Known about the structure:
5 strands; Cytidine Deaminase, domain 2; alpha+beta; 5-stranded mixed sheet; binds tetrahydrodeoxyuridine
Amino acid sequence: MTDDALIAAAREAAGNSYSPYSNFAVGAALRFADGSVVTGSNIENASYGLALCAETVAVAKAMADGVRGGLEAVAVTGPGIDPITPCGRCRQVLHELAALGGTDPEILCVGPSEVRRTRLSTLLPDAFGPESL
Length: 133
Ligand code: THU
């Protein structure tokens, strides 16, 4: 899948966001070494602090299906005017899955007119992970 298609998958996932409290619909799409793609969207709760971010939902979906590692790229889309970057907790959650396969995935932070490309290791330097225990 091309990067453009990965971004399109993240945008489509954002359409399933359950975000009535923030009205901030986020989509995430994970691409794996075998070509598979797993998506997620943010899922909020009347108990506001229990909101689940799109990236975390996508990682949980993948891992619940048995995926361990192979994470090559992540696209994240949001409704803001700037490219959206994964929150701190999501960086850590992404690191766990990436570390299992020893990859440093590219992160595509998508805005309305710009895609900011970075690496997970740049967003989360000196990460604590399974290798740290
Ligand atoms: N959100 C995400 O889904 N991913 C992020 O990386 C940042 C924030 C969600 C959480 C909440 O539902 C909404 O965006 C506003 O913070």
